[in-house]
Amino acid sequence: MKQTINQLLDVYHQQNKPKNPQKLSFKGVDGYDVYNPSQPFDYCGKSLIIARVEKRDSEVSQAVFFEDNQGVYVRREDLSPLPLQDPCITIIDGEYVVGGTYVTHQNDNLVWYTKFYKGAQLNDLKPSLDAPLGMKDVRLLQLKDHRIAVFTRPQGEKGKRGKIGFFIADTYASITTEAIDNAPLFDQFIDQEWGGANQIIQLDDQTLGVLGHIACFTEGYTRHYYAMTFKVNLLTKKASPMKMIAKREDFLEGPAKREDLYDVLFSAALSHIQGDLYKLYCGVSDVEIQTIEVVSPF
After folding, report:
1. Are 209 and 229 in contact (CB under 8 A)?
2. Domain with 34 in it: what CATH number?
3. What's the domain count of the chain?
4. Which is the most buried residue in 34, 80, 249, 250, by most CB within 10 A?
5. Stretch 120-145: mean pLDDT
């Protein structure tokens, strides 16, 4: 069932609002913006994130590893950056799989796609999987039964401005560029709006929780991105209705990369605190990272 941003906002305004927004602080990248992070993860007993690092007037990015040191995120100089935007990370078959948007030139044209690197150690990651050209926001999660959930986001003739696809692969090796391209789509967005999956969480044996975004343009191609969630039934492979959980004005004021990007939230990760309380990590206005506390996101 298709849902619009305005419909989601109507329900959102009747919910408990997110609380306690905070800006994250980064060390070791002076003169650069840090935004659109991965989920936090453990590595050799330390809590790390990967984040997009670039100059304010550029989109030439690196995905840089940072360690949480009492609330300040310090660059890990021993871990080599990857040439990616908007990084994500998961573990499949006991190895790290780091993905993100890879931008390159092909026949003098700028092209991009989701690229994944895989390895037993973060300094031994090798290219292992490419999404189709033009496809951002591919996300993977190994399920409790060892199969792998794959979320896609085609654009163009199949996906319009961006729709979410989903399939389950038996093995990592069976996740090919062609398989990603052929994933069936959920019926969620009207053609004038778009969305994507950002983090996948297995809630129980039969249910996935998906943190994602829904977005639109207004006059002047001003972008508006909102954090949303939905569930996926692993037996039926059907998606639940979406739920909006945060918008830009819930967070602290701050700068923007460009004026048309102020109202942009990159829904990066949900981290469980206790009970129904979660911490939501977001890239904000393509400049910084903030967190906020959300009750019952799913």
Report:
1. yes
2. 2.115.10.20
3. 1
4. 34
5. 97
